[in-house]
Amino acid sequence: MQIVQWANLDTEQRRETLTRPAMSNSAEITSIVSNIVNRIRTEGDSALREFTAKFDKVSDGDLRLSNAAIQAACERTSPELKTAIQHAYRNVATFHQAQKPTPLSLDTQTGVRCELHYQPINRVGLYVPGGSAPLVSTVLMLAIPAKIAECRKVILCSPPPIADEIIYAATLCGVSEIYTMGGAQAIAAMAYGTESVSKVDKIFGPGNSWVTEAKRQVSMDFRGAAIDMPAGPSEVLVIADDTANAAFVASDLLSQAEHGPDSQVVLVTPSVELANQVDAELEKQLAELSRADIARKALESSRSIICADLEEACAISNEYAPEHLIVQTFEPRALLGQLENAGSIFLGNWTPESVGDYASGTNHTLPTYGYAKTASSLGLADYQRRYTVQELSADGLKGLATTVTTMADAEGLTAHKRAVTIRMDSIKSQEAK
Questions:
Q1: Is the pLDDT confidence value at 421 over 90?
Q2: Range(s) of the domain holding residue 154
Q3: Strand arrangement, sheet containing 344-347
Q4: Which of 199, 214, 229 is the last residue of a domain?
Q5: Considering only CA atoms, which of 199, 224, 41 is closest in space to residue 124?
Q6: N or C: which end of the chain has fewer CB within 10 A?
Q7: 232 and 23 Cβ atoms separated by less than 8 Å
Q8: Distance separating alpha carbons of residues 364 and 255, to the nearest angstrom
Q9: 270-285 residue pLDDT tens
Q10: Residue 380 DSSP symbol
Q11: Phi-psi region of 428 (alpha: psi -120 to 50; beta: other; left: phi over 0)
């Protein structure tokens, strides 16, 4: 990794140092995805099957898995993996169950009752990438909160052939429909619905640049579907001091670098010695990785930043706003109050990012590419909508009437004013009797 001295950089150089690798969002991808989305919206299954044959290399058979196929996949999943999935399920469910909100009801003044209620999103669609690393953990992170929120319909799409463990985890989480399709065509099918695929109200899950662009397009169409959050390549930032274990730090950096060549990992430390030790450990550990080539490519856009102290390290992290933030310092919790922008924070030597990815209980679906400054980690609230209720008595309206009519006059909205005065006239008439 490139080692840079923060103190030697001017403002523009510091900005460039914290810049992520460019996301693939070319005009060509936008155009191709737009064609896929529009054709599936207007042509339904015929276009969906055409694109499935072209991109997923599947030209026959049902897009939706049968109950028999689901049962067979569950039976093929090894007992050891089932035990691990069940353990992770319990922890993730425990953490998200605790997020259930409490309805609110109170009087803001005499006779004016205001309430806040929560309702599950009716229909949700989950997208789980396939390929060389079938993300069974993503199934748990997306489907468990949907189950706890009591969404009425939960469907899942994943590119064929869907790994048995993905099917098992989906079944464990109560997913009602599983479809063998991937890419932009799967996003479009869930957003608009086809003869074979149920339409959903909101789509969750990560994906490549085609999936990301499809999610963006359908979320901007009132006929389409909402999405969970904006997303980019995976990333981690590690804050470490001279007490940190260089081997631990290197392993955490590599655990994100192996996601993809466009991932980025950053080390921020006041210790030049540690940065050099970590660099040596990276090379040593790379030799043992199954995805070493991918990790090496990611490291080309990654760097170690030498800062003055831990206070400056926190400031650098806040500016970068990482998806994952690991703190390996002498007193990691002491820095928590200074850390403002991160998707998820991992404190101490014994908390690798991997535990959050799989089984600690927190959700691993996190804002990337700097969106942690304004967006939050996925949670139960993302599967719910909230709405308010108000109810006034006659006395309550009397107590608010002057305030409302005065403000309506100021805005020139006479119908708003009359909606109050006509009722006040009725109240006065009844009181006069």
A1: yes
A2: 27-102+116-229
A3: 2-5, 303-306, 264-269, 235-240, 324-328, 344-347
A4: 229
A5: 199
A6: C
A7: yes
A8: 14
A9: 999 999 999 999 999 9
A10: G
A11: alpha
pLDDT range class, residue 23, cuts 50, 70, 90: low
Burial class of residue 66 (count of CB atoms within 10 Å of its CB; 0-12, 13-18, 19+): exposed
Strand residues in 13-110 grouped as ranges (E):
104-109
d(CA 166, CA 275): 38
Same domain, 217 and 297: no
Please pick, among 213, 323, 353, 364, the residue that the annotation labels catalytic.
323
* Residues 164 and 185: beta-carbon distance below 8 Å: no
Per-residue pLDDT for 289 more than 70?
yes
- The span from the CA of 276 to the CA of 67, in Å, is 55
Residues 359 and 257 in one domain: yes
What per-residue confidence (pLDDT) applies to 134?
Answer: 81
350 and 87 Cβ atoms separated by less than 8 Å: no
CATH number at residue 408: 1.20.5.1300
Whether 95 and 150 map to the same domain: the answer is yes
| Catalytic annotation present for 283 | no
Domain count across the chain: 3
Q: What is the pLDDT of residue 58?
A: 83
Cα dihedral sign, 207-210-216-217 = negative
Question: If you count them, how many residues does the chain have?
Answer: 433
pLDDT of residue 97: 98
Instruction: State what percent of residues in the chain have pLDDT above 70.
Output: 99
Rg (C-alpha) for the chain, rounded Å, is: 26
**Residue tagged active-site, from 324, 340, 364, 411:** 324
* Domain presence at residue 307: yes
- Both tokens assigned to 288: 């043992």
Residue 25 has pLDDT above 80, yes or no: no
> Before 367, cis peptide (omega within 30)?
no
Distance of CA 165 to the CA centre of its chain: 22
Q: In sequence order, what are the residues at sequence separation of 6 or more whose Cβ sits closer than 8 angstroms to the Cβ of residue 16?
A: none
43: pLDDT strictly greater than 90: yes
Is 323 among the residues known to form the active site?
A: yes
- Do 423 and 365 share a structural domain? no
DSSP secondary-structure letter at 64? B
* Nearest-angstrom CA–CA distance, 87 and 172: 12
CATH classification of the domain holding 84: 3.40.50.1980
